[in-house]
UniProtKB/TrEMBL annotation:
Name of the protein described by the UniProt record: Putative disulfide isomerase
Function: Probable disulfide isomerase, which participates in the folding of proteins containing disulfide bonds. May act as a dithiol oxidase. Acts as a regulator of endoplasmic reticulum-mitochondria contact sites via its ability to regulate redox signals.
Listed transmembrane segments: 684-701
Organism of derivation: Phaeomoniella chlamydospora
Localization in the cell: Endoplasmic reticulum membrane
Length: 763
C-alpha cells in the first residue's frame, strides 16, 4: 500500500503541467486592490495580467503561496467560465458592503485553494499548482470576481441588482444565487454543499475548521467550532478518490500525453414564451386576470379602457376588434370595461373614454394618436420594435435614410448596468416619436466628436443636438432626460397633424407652410425652402445665444477683476457667486412645420383665410395669443421662400411686433380673451382694479338704496349752515351727493343748529 502511495505521489510530481489548472491571462487584481479603483480599461487589464505571475501580488496561507484571485475581464467572461464550476462575486469598487466583505472573500478563497481534498485537510507540502490533487482540479471548482462598474453588461445579463452578489455558474450557465448571510461560515456552508454534490462523500462529515476572516493560517487537524449537521457518504468519497487517483496514474505513465479538447460553451437557449394573441381577439380583462397576465409578466400588451355607454368607445369597437385580428401572433390586445372594473380603472388613473395604453414590464405609455386602423397598427408595430438596438456606423447611416429623428447613446466598456437600465426605461416614452439606438463605434464617436462616455445626442436630418448632462446622476435621471427628449424629438420641419398640433403650436411661434400634393414640384420646393430657412434660423439663434452668454461671462469677469483691483473682498465674493443661468429656451422659440393643405383645406380657410388653390402660403402663428401674420413688411403674402421667411420672423417676434397681427378668433371672443390674458399677465394690477371696482359698486348701490328711502323724500331743502347759505341739488354731481348733497353719505340729518343758523327743521 505504501509503495502504491509513493508511486502516486511520484506521478503527481512528474505530471505534465498541461494537466494542471490553467493560469488565466486576464486581470488578476485581488479584491482589496479592486476596492476603490475606477472602472477598469483594457490597458489596465493588460498591466494586471502582466502582474499575475509576480510574487508581490501573491499571498501565503498555511505556508502555501496563493496566486491572486482571478478578476474576470468582461471580454473574456465566456471563455473563462465556460468549463467547470465558478463561484463569482459581482461587486462595485465604490460599494461599502463590497469593501467590508473583501477580507472574508479573500480568506475563503485562500482556505479552499490550499486545502487537500483527498485528506480533507491543509498540507503545507502540497504543490497546489502542479498537482491534480489540488482543490481546483479535484472539484473543478474556482473562485473569481467581476467588476460590475467596468463590465456592467454581464452583471445586467445575470440580473445583478445589488452589490455584492455571489453567483454560482456551471459550464458558463448560472445555476444558483447565494442568498444567505454574507459571512465566512454561511458562504463556506454553501460551498460545502456544492462540493459534496460534485464529489459525494469527499467532504468532512462535520465540515472543515474555518479560519477567521483575514487570517493567514488555520489548524486543520481539529474539529470545527460549529459542526455541520449533515450526513456524508464516506464510501462514495473513498470511491471518488480512488477513481481520481487512477486517472492520475494513467496520465503519468502514459507514453503520449493526451489533451482533452476543450468543451464548447453550451448553446444559449433563446427565451421562448407562449405565442401572443393566439386567437386574434381582444381579451376582456378583469382585475384578477390583469394582475396575472399583464402586471406580473414582461409580455407587451395594448389595452383599451372603455365604458359601454360611451359613443366614442362604441365607434372604436369594430376597429379595435379588427386590430386584434391583424396582430394575431404578434401582440396581445386587451380591453377593460370600467363599469365592471371601476377599481382597476381608478388605479390606472383613467380620466376619459376610450383610453389606450401600451404596457410592458410594469411600465406604460398612453396612445394619443388617431384612432384609424392604420394608425393603431403602425403604432403597435413600432412599439413592439422599441428595444434599444446596438448599431455600427454603416447601420446608423442606413437608418438616417429612413428616419428623420434618431437618438444615439454612446457607451464604452465602463458603462454600467445602471446606465443601461436607465436607457431601457426611455423606450416606451419614445414610441411613435423617434428611434433610439446605442453604439460603441469609434467611427461614430469621431463623427460626432464624442470624448466622454456615456453620452446621449439626437440626430435630426444629420444635425446633432447634445444632451448637456454628463454626470452619472444626470444620465440616469429619467424625468430630466425625457424632458430634454421631448424638446427635440420632433423633426426640424415636422408635418402638423391632429396628434402633434398642441405640441407644435403651444408656447411657440410657428412658421407654418401650407403645401399641397396636387403640385408636386412646388410641394418639394416648398419643403426644401422651409427646411433651409429652419436650419439657417437655428444656426443664427445658436450664434446669438453663444454671443449673449459670452457677453455675460465677460461682464462677470470684469466685475471680478474690478473687485480684485480694489481689494474689495465682499464685491469679489459677490462677483464670483454670480451664476450665468441663461438658456436658449428662456425665450419663446420659433418652430417650423408644414401642413397638408389638401387635407386641412377647410381649417386653413376658416382660421387663416388661406385659399390653397391660389398657391402655397406661409403664416407665422402665435397660438398663445390667438394671432398670426401672413404678410411681409411690404404687404405681400409670405411665401415658401427662405428670404421671405427670415426677413419677416424678426419683425414678428420683436416686442412689440413691428407688423400688425391678425386674429384667429372673432371680435367678441377676442375681447374676453384679451381680458383673460391681461389678468394672467398682470395679476397685481388686476387685483387692485377688482378691489376698486367692488368698493365703487358698493358705494353706488348704497346711494341708490338711500335715494329710495321713503322717510327721506323731503330732505335736502336749502339751509343756512355755518359755512353760509347752501342749496342742495336734486341732481348734483357724484362728489356733491357723496360729501353733502342730497342724501349725501356725510349729511347729518335731523340735527339743528350744528351746520345751520336759520333754525329750519327738515320736514
Amino acid at each position: 500500500m505504501k509503495s502504491t502511495l509513493l508511486l502516486w505521489t511520484f506521478a503527481s510530481v512528474l505530471a505534465v503541467p498541461g494537466f494542471a489548472a490553467p493560469q488565466e491571462e486576464g486581470s488578476a487584481l485581488s479584491v482589496e486592490e479592486a476596492i476603490g479603483k475606477p472602472a477598469v480599461d483594457k490597458s489596465t487589464s493588460a498591466l494586471s495580467a502582466a502582474d499575475d505571475t509576480s510574487d508581490d501580488s501573491s499571498t501565503v496561507f498555511n505556508g502555501i503561496k496563493v496566486p491572486p484571485m482571478l478578476d474576470i475581464e468582461g471580454d473574456k467572461w465566456d471563455e473563462t467560465v465556460k468549463e467547470g464550476w465558478w463561484f463569482v462575486k459581482h461587486y462595485s469598487p465604490y460599494c461599502g458592503h463590497c469593501a467590508a466583505i473583501a477580507p472574508t472573500w479573500q480568506t475563503l478563497y485562500e482556505f479552499y485553494y490550499t486545502s487537500s481534498p483527498i485528506q480533507s485537510q491543509t498540507k503545507a507540502e502540497q504543490s497546489t499548482e502542479s498537482s491534480l490533487n489540488s482543490f481546483d482540479n479535484f472539484y473543478d471548482f474556482h473562485f473569481g470576481s467581476l467588476n460590475c462598474i467596468a463590465y456592467g453588461e454581464i452583471c445586467e445579463k445575470h440580473d445583478v441588482k445589488a452589490w455584492p452578489t455571489f453567483l454560482l455558474y456551471k459550464d458558463g450557465v448560472l445555476v444558483e444565487k447565494f442568498t444567505g448571510k454574507k459571512n465566512l461560515q454561511e458562504i463556506s456552508h454553501f460551498v460545502e454543499e456544492k462540493l459534496e454534490g460534485i464529489r459525494p462523500g469527499s467532504r468532512p462529515k462535520d465540515g472543515p475548521k474555518l479560519p477567521e476572516a483575514g487570517a493567514t493560517s488555520v489548524e486543520t487537524d481539529v474539529p470545527p467550532d460549529n459542526p455541520l449537521a449533515k450526513d456524508k457518504d464516506a464510501a462514495g468519497g473513498v470511491a471518488a478518490a480512488e477513481k481520481h487517483m487512477e486517472k492520475i496514474a494513467e496520465q503519468a505513465t502514459g507514453a503520449e500525453e493526451k489533451l482533452e479538447a476543450p468543451k464548447s460553451a453550451p448553446p444559449k437557449k433563446e427565451k421562448t414564451g407562449p405565442t401572443p394573441n393566439q386567437q386574434g381577439t381582444s381579451v376582456s380583462l378583469t382585475a384578477e386576470s390583469f394582475q396575472k397576465l399583464v402586471t406580473t409578466t414582461e409580455e407587451p400588451w395594448f389595452i383599451k379602457f372603455y365604458a359601454p355607454w360611451c359613443a366614442h368607445c362604441q365607434a372604436l369597437a369594430p376597429t379595435w376588434d379588427q386590430l386584434a385580428k391583424e396582430l394575431k401572433g404578434e401582440l396581445n390586445v386587451g380591453e377593460v370595461n370600467c363599469d365592471a372594473e371601476p377599481r382597476l380603472c381608478k388605479d390606472a388613473k383613467i380620466k376619459g373614454f376610450p383610453t389606450m395604453y401600451f404596457l410592458r414590464g410594469g411600465e406604460r405609455v398612453e396612445y394619443e394618436g388617431l384612432r384609424g386602423l392604420g394608425d393603431l397598427l403602425k403604432y403597435s408595430r413600432s412599439a413592439m420594435d422599441s428595444d434599444v438596438k446596438d448599431v455600427d456606423a454603416a447601420q446608423f447611416k442606413e437608418m438616417e435614410e429612413t428616419e428623420e429623428v434618431i437618438f444615439l447613446y454612446f457607451y464604452d466598456h465602463a458603462t454600467t448596468s445602471e446606465d443601461f437600465a436607465a436607457l431601457d426605461r426611455l423606450t416606451l416614452s419614445l414610441i411613435g416619436h423617434a428611434k433610439i439606438v446605442k453604439t460603441n463605434s469609434a467611427v461614430l464617436a469621431d463623427r460626432f466628436k464624442i470624448s466622454t462616455w456615456p453620452r446621449l445626442l439626437v440626430s435630426r436630418d444629420g444635425r446633432p443636438t447634445y444632451y448637456t448632462g454628463l454626470a452619472p446622476s444626470e444620465m440616469r435621471d429619467f424625468r430630466q432626460v425625457l424632458t430634454w427628449m421631448q424638446s427635440v424629438w420632433l423633426p426640424i420641419v415636422p408635418e402638423l397633424t391632429a396628434s402633434n398640433a398642441r405640441e407644435i403650436m403651444d408656447g411657440h411661434y410657428v412658421v407654418l407652410g401650407a403645401l399641397t400634393h396636387s403640385r408636386p414640384d412646388e410641394f418639394k420646393q416648398g419643403k426644401r425652402e422651409l427646411k433651409n430657412a429652419a436650419l439657417e434660423w437655428m444656426d443664427k439663434q445658436t450664434q446669438l445665444f453663444q454671443l449673449e452668454r459670452q457677453e455675460l461671462r465677460d461682464a462677470k469677469q470684469l466685475r471680478i477683476e474690478e473687485a480684485d483691483d480694489r481689494n474689495d473682498q465682499r464685491a469679489l465674493r459677490q462677483a464670483k457667486s454670480r451664476r450665468i443661468t441663461i438658456r436658449e429656451d428662456d425665450r419663446k422659440q420659433v418652430r417650423f412645420a408644414w401642413v397638408d393643405a389638401d387635407f386641412w383645406e377647410r381649417w386653413l380657410k376658416t382660421t387663416f383665410g388661406i385659399d390653397v388653390q391660389k398657391g402655397e402660403r406661409v403664416i407665422i402663428n402665435d397660438q398663445d395669443n390667438r394671432r398670426y401674420w401672413d404678410t411681409t413688411e411690404s404687404g405681400a403674402f409670405i411665401t415658401p421662400s427662405r428670404t421671405s421667411i427670415l426677413e419677416t420672423i424678426p419683425k414678428v417676434i420683436s416686442s412689440p411686433p413691428k407688423l400688425r397681427a391678425k386674429s384667429t378668433i372673432g371680435a367678441i371672443e377676442n375681447f374676453f380673451f384679451q381680458i383673460k390674458n391681461f389678468i394672467s399677465r398682470h395679476k397685481i394690477i388686476a387685483i387692485i382694479t377688482l378691489v376698486i371696482s367692488v368698493i365703487v359698486g358698493l358705494l353706488y348701490f348704497r346711494r341708490k338704496l338711500l335715494q329710495y328711502d321713503p322717510e327721506r323724500k323731503h330732505r335736502g331743502h336749502a339751509s343756512n349752515g355755518i359755512l353760509g347759505e347752501k342749496t342742495t341739488s336734486t341732481g348734483g354731481s357724484f362728489l356733491g351727493n357723496l360729501f353733502g348733497g342730497k342724501n349725501g353719505y356725510f349729511h347729518l340729518d335731523g340735527k339743528e343748529g350744528l351746520l345751520s343758523s336759520g333754525g329750519a327743521k327738515a320736514d
